[in-house]
Automatic annotation (TrEMBL):
<dbReference type="InterPro" id="IPR023210">
    <property type="entry name" value="NADP_OxRdtase_dom"/>
</dbReference>
<dbReference type="GO" id="GO:0016616">
    <property type="term" value="F:oxidoreductase activity, acting on the CH-OH group of donors, NAD or NADP as acceptor"/>
</dbReference>
<feature type="active site" description="Proton donor">
    <location>
        <position position="62"/>
    </location>
</feature>
<comment type="similarity">
    <text>Belongs to the aldo/keto reductase family.</text>
</comment>
<protein>
    <submittedName>
        <fullName>Diketogulonate reductase-like aldo/keto reductase</fullName>
    </submittedName>
</protein>
<dbReference type="InterPro" id="IPR036812">
    <property type="entry name" value="NAD(P)_OxRdtase_dom_sf"/>
</dbReference>
<keyword id="KW-0560">Oxidoreductase</keyword>
<keyword id="KW-0521">NADP</keyword>
<feature type="site" description="Lowers pKa of active site Tyr">
    <location>
        <position position="87"/>
    </location>
</feature>
<dbReference type="InterPro" id="IPR020471">
    <property type="entry name" value="AKR"/>
</dbReference>
<feature type="domain" description="NADP-dependent oxidoreductase">
    <location>
        <begin position="23"/>
        <end position="270"/>
    </location>
</feature>
<feature type="binding site">
    <location>
        <position position="120"/>
    </location>
    <ligand>
        <name>substrate</name>
    </ligand>
</feature>
<dbReference type="InterPro" id="IPR044500">
    <property type="entry name" value="AKR5G"/>
</dbReference>
<dbReference type="InterPro" id="IPR018170">
    <property type="entry name" value="Aldo/ket_reductase_CS"/>
</dbReference>
<dbReference type="Pfam" id="PF00248">
    <property type="entry name" value="Aldo_ket_red"/>
</dbReference>
Amino acid sequence: MNTFRNTKKIESLSGTWTLHNGVKMPYLGLGVYKANEGEEVINAVSWALETGYRHIDTATAYENEEGVGKAIKQSKIAREDLFLTSKIWNSDQGYDSTIEAFEKSLERLDTNYLDLYLIHWPVKGKYKDTWRALEKLYKDGKIKAIGVSNFLQHHLEDLMKDCEINPMVDQLEFHPWLVQSDLQDFCKLNSIQYEAWSPLMQGKAFDNDTLKELGEKYDKSPAQIVIRWDLQNGVITIPKSTSKDHIKSNSEVFDFELSDLDMKKINALDREERIGPDPDNFDF
C-alpha cells in the first residue's frame, strides 16, 4: 500500500499547487457534473465563488458550460483570478474536430482561453490526434495547461511515446474504494498532477463506518474527511455539489490534519472498486 504523503502546503481554499509547466492550479475546486444548465449550475458556481473557490471544472458532455460562463461573468471576479477547466468529448475527438469543439466551448463559456483542457476519455485510435490538437492550442496560448482524464498507466505511456508535451494533469476516479497507488506513483514520477473525480463515491462516503468514525474523532463530516485525505495524498479534488451548504462545508477542510495512522485507515478501505466506467472498457 502506498503511504505517500503530500509534502506540499495545504493552507487555504485559495491555495494552489504548481504544474510541471509552472501554472498554479487550485487544489480544491467545484465540479459541476450533472448540474443542470441554467439556474442550478449558475447558482452552484455563484455560491462556490462567493465562498472563495477559484477553480471550476466542467466539460462539454455536462451540457452546462454556458451557465458556468454566466455565473463567472456575474461574479465580477477577474478572469485571471479563476482556474477554469473543460474537457473534449469523445465524439469530438480527432485533430480538426478537437480544435473546432474547443472554440465552441470558449464561446459557451464566454472566455477567450481555458486554464486547463482535458481529453475526457482515452478513445482508442483518436486520443493521439486529439492530443496534437491540444498541444497546438497550448502553443497558441489558448490553454494555460493541458491534460487527460481517465487515462491509466498504459494510456499515458502510449501517449507519451509520441507527444511533444507531457500531460500536466490526469483526472481520474479516485476515492477510498479506488486508490490505484501504482498509478499515483507513476504520475508523480512523471510530474503529472493527479486529480480526483467522484471523490465522495457518489454519496457512498456518508455511509461508510470508518469515515463516520473519523468524522466523529475530528468533528468533521465524512465528506470533509475524504476531501482532506485527497489533499494529504497530493491529489487535487473537485467535489460536485449543487447545495449551498455542501459547497461551503466541502471547503472547510483547512483547520485540521489527518494523522498518518488515520490516513492509512482510509487507504485500507481500497477495494479496487469503480463507481464509474472502466477506462479500458467503455463504449461511449
